[in-house]
Specification:
The complex is a heterodimer of chains A (about 800) and B (about 240). With about 800 residues, chain A is α+β, with helices and mostly antiparallel strands. Chain A contains 27 helices and 28 strands. In chain A, helix 19 packs parallel to helix 20. The longest helix of chain A is centred in the N-terminal third of the chain and has 21 residues. With about 240 residues, chain B is an alpha/beta fold. Chain B is built from 5 helices and 11 strands. In chain B, strand 1, helix 1 and strand 2 form a beta-alpha-beta unit. The longest helix of chain B is centred in the C-terminal third of the chain and has 17 residues. The chains are: A alpha+beta (about 800), B alpha/beta (about 240). The interface between A and B is large, with 54 and 51 residues.
Chain lengths: ~800, ~240
């Protein structure tokens, strides 16, 4: 056992205590003003976590205020633990995304596991039962041993926690980019479902009410997680920081979910808050501030994991799986009974007061709610000073001097793609893209996550947005995460807009309407003007996109200081979207469903390959720009696709994003087990048409007789639409026509092929094995197994030849309420 | 008719079992781990999850819970008990079915759709099966079925092997490294029953493939077999 500590860790260099705790001299002056005196050690420790970037948003708060946060049906939003939006039938959905980047870099398994635990608590603290997790993970070079160590640990951590706690992990992202080499990103989104009457807020109302702490005991783990670890740049794998990482216990969390939801359901608690960053200091001050009350805390009553903890350690410990609740005194016996039935320790630790202060005493609180005679007050801080009136820094934002490399002399300003000049076979380029670390199948990852517990999963991971039915209704929730770091590195405003556009598009192409946006903004050190400028531009871009697309920002999280000695990460705006599909029988998915269907491309391509997967693969002139985005057109496209799906015109739909149109078509073909024969007009460059990632495009398939209606509908939305060809066969064949194709290429003496022609089994092979090869792991055994949904799944009824399936007496899967595309 | 689903602390697929029973048209009854009283149910499901956190070893603590005394008595009287995933692990630890479940051969949690085929169609847990492979999910880290050779020979002889993992052509994935054998189970065993035939366990989750909206209702062949056997047993008493 370690020696009892009475003070914060001894300085390695003689430095004032506040600086050791990450409080600046200027901040100390403000603390003195707020208290009217010098803070003592315990108070300073509490301020240090509460005024950390992680808890206070002291740099980002002025920016976040500019975001649109009002929307239809919103019940809770930014400032609450999670956004909550009504979905009808007396139900609502709660969702939020949060980062756990630095803990995962130091201790990958526990860092990722507690990231899942923390975001789940944010959901059930609102009264919602968690029904899904999505994990967005970003790493450096996949062939690097340290990256592989991080990938393995983080994936095991996400799975280890989510699988045990019984919440399916249904989607997410896995991105490799050199900028994350020393600073991986672990962003976890959770979604919960609640009856509207269950909604409860994190507040401590009613002076005289009991304040209870239940869940795990309080230990020395995670001390300073928010301040030391999350709010400073760091050297990778700094072993001294390992004790700042919390340790998760998903079994304890599972019990906590059940007990908390029972307490809320039976209205035994008046307010409830989880203990995350900042521990009991944060939970108590936020709850009191929100209710306009104070809290008197009895330090001795807080159950400890180990003896000899100093008051400041107890106050800022980030031990996991703990909840703080307020209850009426007469309900306390029932609250205790619920916790004890679930085997959860519970303690009465304080009273709600009227003075607006967080006061901490040693020596106990009497039955009258006042400190016992002889009890010693060891800290007293106005709750407001820790939360709503915490310090705000107005940081300097400066764009970098040169945002783009100047073109070399003699190089034309127009973008030049490398494809024709290099004589590349477009099929080979396509296979290389599909097998690349960022576009290949994520099966090796998601097969380590329970994806179907709770019996809601309509769409398993791997093929676009996650789809969860809402039991007892015809509805489904559709969710996705997307973040574009490669364009953000070139233009943070555009990158954030593209992230919102892609995430919402991924939801809209299922037929669902996006109802809210949560975001995790991963940026560098805000004290560096260029990094702060990136954050400022991203918030502006996200806000503009949300306003045009009509989606409220329901909450989120800001993770700054994502830097390490080798540099800063590319700015990464991770966007989480939840959409509502009113009738799950109308769900449309990306795979081609039926031989003979027409393939229609809606939207047009714009020049610019910078930031694309193709550019990464083929190399690119540095003066090229990313393709532009027209938000009005994006909004029109998403309205169009939802309308077309709602009218039953669409059999499959996929958006054009990473890897461009060719990859989108390949995915429709591979996942559906059906090829296609298409003709694509090339006006400028084959590389841009095939592999460019200009936004606001979808490729869909439909019955041939519906193609004219779809083209007409698209024109009504002001969108170009062209029928490319027909679904069928075992090859993806795209003939390139028009002046930009064969003829022009021949004139230039190029050997570029005039068609992309490849067997889908070959594309599938590249796609299946790419990730395992990059990571040097055993390829998944499941590749020989049929996809649960795709090729052997029955196609929609009327115009489909009977598919042999489930012979014998069993009712055939699919059928009337099957999730495949409608026959129309 | 009423069928019980046991909830241990840490059970998480109890909701799936309750849902599948409702789909089958029977009244599901939640049974709490602290009571050996099974409330007169006609059959019992031990669901998936992580009972008591699966600390020490999967299923080993649950074995000593009060409800398992009730389940063991119920089984001894001939009542039908179905253990799914963690429930199978609990049954194996309780010695109510033969064998043990080891860590997956990959040493990783495995979540995917597998194909299993009933070995016989005359058991209480398979008589409503078509005999064709069922495509249902697995979600476990410790599902590698193991027993010594003598036990394996014995249970094969007695017809206690109820389901095996099968390859796309329908043949058993006997090689533990066969991609169709998701966890390295010996002789591709996915599920077994006791000698009397009234207690069965399997690693895959039939109760999670209970409705076409979830991908298929293949699992209902198994759930319906179990429910009807329980009904017949109750009627005969």
């Amino acid at each position: 056992m370690s020696e009892p500590t009475t003070n914060p860790p001894a300085p390695t260099q003689p430095e004032p205590l506040h600086r050791q705790l990450g409080v600046t001299d200027q901040e100390l002056d403000v603390i003195r003003q707020k208290l009217g005196r010098d803070p003592n050690h315990t108070e300073l420790a509490v301020f240090s976590v509460m005024w950390s970037e992680h808890c206070s948003y002291k740099s980002s708060r002025p920016l976040l205020k500019t975001l649109p946060t009002r929307g239809h049906g919103m019940m809770a939003g930014p400032g609450d633990n999670a956004g909550v939006v009504r979905i009808g039938d007396g139900l609502a959905v709660a969702f939020k995304i949060e980062s756990h980047n630095h803990p995962s870099a130091v201790e990958p398994y526990q860092g990722a596991a507690t990231g899942v635990g923390g975001i789940l608590r944010d959901i059930f603290t609102m009264g919602a039962r968690p029904i899904a997790v999505l994990d967005a993970l970003r790493f450096g070079d996949p062939t690097d041993p340290r990256t592989r160590h991080l990938v393995d640990g983080i994936v095991r951590g996400v799975g280890g926690y989510g699988n045990c706690v019984g919440v399916p992990t249904v989607g997410g992202e896995l991105v490799f980019d050199p900028s994350y080499q020393g600073n991986p990103l672990v962003n976890v989104m959770a979604i919960g479902l609640l009856e509207e009457r269950m909604l409860i807020l994190a507040e401590a109302p009613g002076p005289g009410n009991y304040v209870v702490l239940f869940g795990s005991t309080t230990g020395r783990d995670g001390i300073g997680g928010a301040s030391v670890l999350a709010s400073a740049t760091f050297a990778d794998s700094d072993p001294n920081k390992r004790p700042t990482v919390q340790v998760g216990d998903p079994f304890a969390e599972k019990l906590l979910i059940e007990a908390s939801l029972e307490l809320i359901d039976r209205r035994l608690v008046e307010g409830i808050q989880d203990l995350g960053a900042g521990g009991i200091s944060c939970a108590s001050s936020e709850s009191a501030d929100k209710a306009g009350t104070g809290i008197l805390l009895d330090l001795d009553a807080i159950p400890r994991r180990e003896p000899g903890m100093a008051p400041w350690e107890v106050m800022i410990s980030e031990s996991q799986e703990r909840m703080l609740a307020t209850c009426r005194p007469e309900n306390y016996p029932a609250v205790r009974e619920v916790c004890e039935r679930w085997g959860i320790p519970i303690a009465l630790v304080g009273r709600v007061t009227t003075d607006g202060d967080i006061a901490i005493v040693e020596g106990g609180i009497g039955i009258d709610g006042l400190p016992n005679p002889g009890a010693k007050e060891i800290a007293r801080i106005p709750a407001k000073a820790l939360t709503s009136e915490a310090i705000v820094h107005y940081r300097l934002a400066t764009p970098p001097a040169r945002r783009r490399q100047a073109p070399a002399p003699g190089i034309p300003l127009t973008a030049q793609d490398g494809l024709p000049e290099r004589g590349m076979d477009p099929a080979a380029v396509l296979a290389a893209l599909l097998g690349s670390p960022n576009l290949s199948s994520r099966r090796w990852v998601y097969e380590q996550y329970d994806a179907c517990v709770q019996s809601n999963t309509v769409e398993w991971p791997g093929h676009g947005a996650a789809v969860l039915r809402v039991k007892g209704t015809k509805k489904a929730l559709v969710a996705t995460t997307d973040g574009n770091q490669s364009v953000s590195a070139l233009d943070p405003y555009l990158g954030a807009q593209l992230s919102v556009a892609e995430a919402t598009r991924n939801v809209s192409i299922t037929g669902a309407r996006p109802i809210g946006l949560t975001n995790c903004l991963n940026y560098g050190n805000p004290e560096r003007p260029e990094a702060f400028w990136q954050l400022q531009e991203a918030v502006r871009g996200m806000g503009d996109a949300c306003r045009t697309l009509g989606i409220p920002v329901t909450g989120g999280n800001v993770s700054l200081y994502n830097e390490y000695p080798g540099g800063a990460i590319s700015p990464t705006p991770e966007i989480g979207i939840v959409g509502l599909l009113e009738d799950v029988s109308l769900l449309v998915r990306p795979p081609f469903t039926t031989e003979g269907d027409s393939v229609v491309l809606v939207g047009s391509s714009a020049p610019g390959l910078a930031g694309s997967a193709y550019a990464e693969l083929a190399g690119l002139a540095s003066e090229d720009s990313p393709p532009s985005l027209d938000l009005d057109r994006e909004a029109a496209l998403q309205s169009f696709i939802r309308e077309a799906i709602g009218r039953g015109l669409v059999a499959s739909a996929q958006d054009v994003s990473g890897g461009g149109l060719a990859v989108a078509l390949a995915e429709c073909a591979m996942w559906g087990g059906l090829g296609a024969h298409l003709r694509l007009g090339i006006s400028g460059s084959p590389a841009i048409e095939l592999f460019g990632e200009s936004p606001s495009r979808v490729v869909l398939s439909c019955r041939p007789r519906h193609a004219p209606a779809i083209e007409l509908l698209a024109r009504q939305f002001g969108l170009p639409a062209v029928t490319l060809g027909t679904v069928g066969g075992e090859r993806l064949r795209i003939e390139l026509t028009g002046q930009g194709a064969t003829g022009a290429a021949e004139e230039r003496g190029s050997r570029v092929a005039d068609a992309l022609d490849v067997a889908i089994v070959d594309l599938r092979h590249a796609w299946d094995h790419g990730l395992a090869r990059a990571l040097g792991v055993e390829p998944s055994a499941a590749e020989s197994n049929p996809d649960p949904h795709a090729p052997d799944r029955p196609a929609p009824a009327p115009e489909t030849p009977a598919t042999p399936n489930a012979p014998g007496g069993a009712p055939a899967p699919g059928g009337a309420d099957g999730a495949t595309g409608r026959a129309g | 008719m009423r069928i019980g689903v046991v909830t241990f602390p840490g059970s998480n697929s109890d909701v799936d079992a309750l849902n599948a029973l409702a789909v089958a048209g029977v009244e599901p009854v939640s049974l709490w781990h602290e009571s050996p009283d099974l409330q007169g149910v006609a059959g019992v499901i031990l669901p998936g999850g992580f009972a008591y956190g699966d600390y020490l070893r999967a299923g080993v603590i649950a074995r000593f819970s009060p409800v398992m005394r009730g389940v063991a008595d119920f089984a001894a009287k001939g009542g039908h008990v179905l253990g799914i995933c963690n429930g199978f692990q609990v049954l194996a630890e309780s010695r109510l079915v033969p064998g043990a479940l080891l860590r997956n051969r990959s040493l990783r949690f495995a979540s995917k759709i597998v194909a299993i085929k009933p070995e016989r169609l005359d058991s209480p847990f398979t008589h409503r099966s078509t005999g064709e492979p069922l495509h249902i999910p697995i979600a476990h880290g410790e599902g590698c079925y193991y027993a010594d050779d003598a036990t394996l020979d014995d249970i094969e002889r007695n017809g206690q092997v109820l389901w095996r993992y099968v390859r796309p052509d329908g043949t058993p994935a006997l090689d533990p490294d066969d991609p169709a054998n998701p966890n390295g189970s010996l002789r591709a065993i996915a599920g077994v029953c006791n000698k009397a035939g009234n207690v069965a366990g399997l690693m895959p989750h039939p109760e999670r493939m209970s409705e076409s909206i979830l991908g298929s209702d293949d699992g209902m062949q198994l759930i319906r077999s179990f429910v009807e056997s329980a009904k017949a047993w109750e009627a005969a008493r």
